[in-house]
## 1
Amino acid sequence: MKDLRFSVPVGSLLPWVFTYSRPKSRYMEKHVDRYSIQDRYDFGMKVIEKIRRRARVTIDVHGRELVPKDETIVFYSNHQGKFDALGILASMENIPSSVLWEKKKADFMIAHEMSFLVNAVLIDLETMKGKAQGIIDAIAMIKTGSNMLIFPEGKTDPEKGNALGEFQAGCFACSLKTQTTIVPVAIYDSYKAMNGNNIFARVTTQVHFLAPIRPEEYKDLNKQELCELVKNRIKDKLEEIEGDQNP
């Protein structure tokens, strides 16, 4: 069986999911007027914490003090595996953020609940029309003042480890169209958390929030130039971490 680090902890939570978290999230979804976005988000963080503990993952967080307060933020992160969004959201501490979430993955049971709880914007990565509509929906959400977490690599490939894949420039329209502050995020060893079959190993992942990029810094750039700016910031941090790990 593939990715026991994902299926075993999630499977062990199924009794709790079916008797508590799923009924509660479904109730919230049916009575959305009774629960604020913060209420839903707080419950989502409880679910993430349950998953993190069962997966035996510790998150080493750096740079959280760099994230501006009382501003709308678009977070752009590299993408490694199933734990990435959960690890970043768990690292934010009282900074609710929506996620640009792949529609196909949101069809699974726990993912469906989580996408609702964090007020995710779904994007269909299988078609150009679906990609474009997802970006349009994300822009609309950001304009309401919602923070947004985006993975410009789109799909994951855990076999590449901590290496960067290609960034898709189109998603940077979310910043250019809204002129909001950008915070690049570099994750390291996140692919080890819920990919692979070593269910007994304890894993430490790293989440690094990097210096913010203000609108005045990128306002004259096009999508491709902004894409390269953010990618290079993340690339530099990953190389720095790699150097520290292997002096």
## 2
Amino acid sequence: MKAKKSFGQHFLVQDSIASNIADSLTMDQETKRVLEIGPGMGMLTKFLLKKDYQLKVVEADRDMVQYIGLHYPTLKDHIIAEDFLKVNLTQVFGGETFCLIGNFPYNISSQIIFRTLEHMDLIPEMVGMFQLEMAERVATKEGSKTYGVISVLTQALYDVEFLFKVKKGSFNPPPKVESAVIRLSRRETPRIDCSYKTFRTVVKLSFSQRRKMLRNTLRGMVRNKEILDDPIFSKRPEMLSVEEFSDLTKLIIEHK
């Protein structure tokens, strides 16, 4: 059986790249439980199966589900035929923690990261291939033009490592963009000491008008307008570190 190539999907065809991605998980010895997102035709899957993992895969494409079940029969009872964004992650391994890995569909890659953040208690580590621009955005530090909401929210909870770039020719068909692999490792202690829910609101609102000073974008969250004289409100959001966003959030909470 030949798998049909889904519209807009680019399949990894370089064994060496797939092997390197599989080897990039560092917490596998702790959890043994690994969930692969979008296995496609199994290029990464075959290397994961060589390891001592309790492996499950989640795939929404019915053709790919059939292909994986046929070519990797040991996985037949461990295929979750659903959209990852709709999967009940608590039920995947019976409430146990697991590592996340995959050559992620670029059109939902940011949503995959945000879903990971929402379930940080379940996911101590994630290794994924992203569009290069997205990978750089997640990993970049304050002061960069690409520093934004996803950078701050991710780095508040996870250490982000930019592992390696992947050339266009490593895929069939070749995509129009470069790719890169990054690793998220959950921090033992988050970089914030405030309500994450409020922190997330402050960060998103701050970057909604990134060229404006924070006193303009956050004015609506502040009842005591006197605190707007604090020097932190004269800055633009891309200049604040994660810890400074935490301090900013606490300041707003204290004066509500």
